[in-house]
Amino acid sequence: MSEVSAWFRKKISRRGLLWGGLAAAGGSAIAGTAAGQSVHSGHATTSAAGAEPPQAHLAAHGSMITVGDVDNERNGFDPSRMVTDWETGSVSTLPDGRILRTFEIEAVDKEIEIAPGIMFPAWTYNGRVPGPALRATEGEHLRMVFRNSGSHPHSMHFHGIHAARVDGVPGAGLIDPGEEFVYEFDARPFGCHLYHCHALPLKRHIHKGMYGLFVIDPDPARHPELADVARSRLLGTPENAEWQEFAMVMNGFDTNFDNGNEVYAVNTVAHAYMKRPIRIVRNRPVRIYLANVVEFDPINSFHLHANFFDYFEQGTTLTPTLRTVDLITQVQAQRGILEFTYKDHETGLYMFHPHQSEFTELGWTGMFDVVEAVA
Ligand SMILES: [Cu+2]
């Protein structure tokens, strides 16, 4: 293929994917302009800030989003549930009185639908991309039981503090298909971290879907000077229940294996939160655990519309590392906590997206639906 035609093909595949590409992908992908076709059956959620039915006007022409719907049931995961779906594992007490928290994670090959009609041959943790959003408390002892039921060697490499022998690299927890390994370490430091596969080639294993959030809540007893703040971050406390917390992993997919992404998203499904905005109760505070795992592009970002937020870089402090900003950037594996409120705003739809316009058009844009109260 000549250089020019290769260039042209790349342009078509990236720019044209959501429009011309979808038209070619099948009738179902282009037939979803009627509002009714966007309606999913509702899912129960434990959070007051759960998913809303789609806003018909968002799916109309001119809104620059994908047309049609992804089959969440076939995928086995739903972005509207993923934002509040924390995996807390199972808990027991060690002889010395400390908490032992055990997580079970299985690597599985799985074809997933990332945009209407666009399938991607993913490698997953527990059948979902991103993998489960693991959540523990500072000081606990963690046991990660990892089984590889996939077709390739995989591992779990945690961003945290631990011994070399459980680092999830070759010789330290990189395991062959059919094998099992237990990563064991203490939960520290508190913060918004992540885990991912560390098999080679690294960029391929990460980009195939092997990543997830790993959040360690601060233990208020260890932070007496800011115990109230720590308690507000500790899942299960009344102070934490006041907050509307969301798990967001910014990811991308190279659907034609040319080392460039064709689809971008938060939590995998292109434009999922444009079609079903994330509901926020106006006068309750919002906290987002945000990580960037996009491969091939050096940088990603998060911009909040009509508002500003405080940012906690890597979540490892109880006071903000950036105050009153409306945009932050993240390289791969960078992450942090955003805190904000819409209590002084009118109700309505408020957008969030990266400020790389290309990413927004290729799937990474969402809406908060700020409401007065939840019935
Ligand atoms: Cu892997």
From TrEMBL:
PROSITE patterns: TAT. Its EC number is 1.7.2.1. PANTHER family: FI03373P-RELATED (PTHR11709:SF394), MULTI-COPPER OXIDASE (PTHR11709). Homotrimer. Its cofactor is Cu(+); Cu(2+). It is an enzyme of class 1 (oxidoreductase). It catalyses: nitric oxide + Fe(III)-[cytochrome c] + H2O = Fe(II)-[cytochrome c] + nitrite + 2 H(+). This is Copper-containing nitrite reductase. Belongs to the multicopper oxidase family. InterPro entries: Cu-oxidase-like_N, Cu-oxidase_C, Cu-oxidase_fam, Cupredoxin, NO2-reductase_Cu, TAT_signal. Keywords: Copper, Metal-binding, Oxidoreductase, Repeat. Residues 120-219, 259-371 form the Plastocyanin-like domain.
